[in-house]
Amino acid sequence: MDRPTLPKGTRDFGPAVMAKRQFIFQSIRSVFERYGFLPLETPAMENLSTLTGKYGEEGDQLLFKVLNSGDYLKDIDPALLSSKDSRRLTPSIAEKGLKYDLTVPFARYVVMNRHEITFPFKRYQIQPVWRADRPQKGRYREFYQCDADVIGTDSMVCEAEIILMIRDAFAKLGINRYSIKINHRGVLAALAALAGAGDKESSLFVAIDKLDKIGEAGVRDELASRGFSAEAVDSLFDLLNKRGTNQEKLELLRAQLGKYEKAAASIHDLEQVFTFVASMGGEAAPVELDLALARGLSYYTGCIFEVKIHDAAVGSVSGGGRYDNLTAVFDSKERSSGVGFSFGVDRLYDAMEELNLFPEETQRSSQVLVCHLDEECLRYGLGITQKLRAKSIAAEIYPEPSKLKKQLEYADKKKIPFAVVIGSDEMKSGVLAVKNLKTGEQHLRTLEQFLSDITAIPK
RNA sequence: GUGAAUGUAGCUCAGUUGGUUAGAGCAUCAGAUUGUGAUUCUGAGGGUCGCGGGUUCGAGUCCCGUCUUUCACCCCA
Asked: Does residue A387 sit in the same domain as residue A238?
């Protein structure tokens, strides 16, 4: 008999890992809620028609399809079946798929529930998504996203708040060295016009997005091989190579791209984002206008974001952008602009592990372990344990009579900071022997003294 | 989806041109210490060598297939 295995790209999360993941989830959730976002959950499965065509051709190939139930071949045209054309057969045998991100199901939800929704609608969503990608480090087939989106306003206050939420979340997680990159699809479109890209826009974007990875020479090679003229590429790099503050880059864009009608509006958008961030006291947030930032799902139409953690090789840990036409895809009368972003929990976890950023408390199960020397002490200890719990102190008791050595080892392994030892002396006197497992010190305390000691310590 | 590596104890890894009974460190468990963990000492347990097939007198070692993990491309959190 074969031992069980997991599907490629999926993982179990044991208690030690879950404690750290919960720390990330809770940190992010508290930031979302502080900015007025409300929770939403949608099904793991959507109709395939809801998902296909939203993520570009590549994205469609990465969708997990769910086989129809029952005798799903019964009514299939035999000619189609014998053609062995998987792509044409798939819609007939699979009408559902696992969700690929949280934004498209959210847009679907908005269209279906618009009469009950107060706009602008701010929701957050923390759920797994699935992609039939080939797994690598930091790339999983099942992973969690934490999305916050606002739909029904085109105010750049939303973009500015996204930047502040990233800053606040990272502060809670203890991530100090990172950069938030921002760009705008309208600016990219103008760059494409400047470079005479014509219908080769997307191959231009793919190339310049690799700038920090393969360098200027690499990008030039790739663009040359795709038929871009040397002059066009030169004028492109005049802009891409500009260093300086975000304001200086905006000035340059205004001067160079002002003649393109859409660019002017995009530059104004970016300007507003920076202004609002400053008004919220976020000047120090590491936001960088990066003209080479081009990636992101195909439905983005406005500002786009990407966040990278320095000193950790995990790819981007957060991304997002504004999308103007997503609800219209589900209902042409429904034209509301939305903007949102997502944290990739699994990559945040990998980065934090690499940088050793998880606080020790996240590993802790209880604050106190009640230890005992025999059956009678155990029974006495049960009462003590409940009294601690009644005071909201996470406490547990070793559930069977056992050597003290074993009980203390248990506390040590579970990183429980305090042990209360109950023996016949303690039962007689009513005082507790409290041992601090970190320092090794042991003192006699009444229950009241111990309670006030322990509540004074920050969790 | 294309191309390439990897897999030996719970973990990190040794294992010679194919040759007897596959090793180490850490971890685990027990004891030294019957009211004190994390340090010390002693001992013990733990292996379908990823899985399946092939070559060979003989395979952890060579060949084929397969799965896993990883890397590059593509794309993305």
From this structure: no
CATH value at residue A399 = 3.40.50.800
Q: Residue A372 CA to B43 C1' — how many Å?
A: 29
Prediction ipTM score? 0.84
Same structural domain for residues A340 and A373?
no
CA distances from residue A159 to A149, A275, A278, A321 in whole angstroms, order as listed: 10, 11, 12, 8
Distance CA A222, CA A234 (A): 14
User: Which nt has its C1' nearest the CA of A437?
Assistant: B37
Average pLDDT, chain A: 91
Q: Which nucleotide's C1' is closest to A307 (Cα)?
A: B77
Task: Tell me the CA–C1' distance in angstroms for A390 and B34.
Answer: 34
A182 lies in the same domain as A267: yes
Q: Which residue is nearest to nucleotide B72 (CA to C1')?
A: A136
Residue A409: nearest nucleotide (C-alpha to C1'): B37
pTM across the whole model: 0.90
- For residue range A47-105, list pLDDT tens digits in order: 999 999 998 888 888 999 999 998 988 888 888 888 877 788 888 899 999 999 999 99
Contact yes or no for A306/A296 (Cβ under 8 A): yes
Where in the sequence is the domain holding A446, given as residue range(s)? 365-455
